[in-house]
Amino acid sequence: MKSSGIVRKLDPLGRIVIPKEIRKVMGIGEGDSLEIAKVDNEIVVRKFSRGCIFCGSDKEIVEFNKALVCGECRNALGKE
């Protein structure tokens, strides 16, 4: 994983602040849900999404390359 050069300390409750620049680039706003996962020996934080990355649908969702895609968008991608 590539380092961004920003270091933050945990507060007594285990919280960290995600810098504004990173939140802006990642499209993370106040009130958004974040998913926290352990992957190998690293902690991964990403914006939580239950729906298709293209249309937001929650119908016929499958994971493809760590992204969620619905059946309709999968079919559309296959035609291009």
UniProtKB/TrEMBL annotation:
Keywords: DNA-binding
CDD domains cross-referenced by the UniProt entry: MraZ_N
SMART domains for the chain: SpoVT_AbrB
GO molecular function, one term: DNA binding
Domain of life: Bacteria
InterPro entries hit by this protein: B_subtilis_Trans_State_Reg (IPR052731), MraZ_N (IPR035642), SpoVT-AbrB_dom (IPR007159), SpoVT-AbrB_sf (IPR037914)
Boundaries of every SpoVT-AbrB domain copy: 5-50
PROSITE patterns (UniProt xref): SPOVT_ABRB (PS51740)
NCBIfam families per record: lp_hng_hel_AbrB (TIGR01439)
Protein name: Transition state regulatory protein AbrB
Source species of the chain: Clostridium saccharobutylicum
Lineage: Bacteria, Bacillati, Bacillota, Clostridia, Eubacteriales
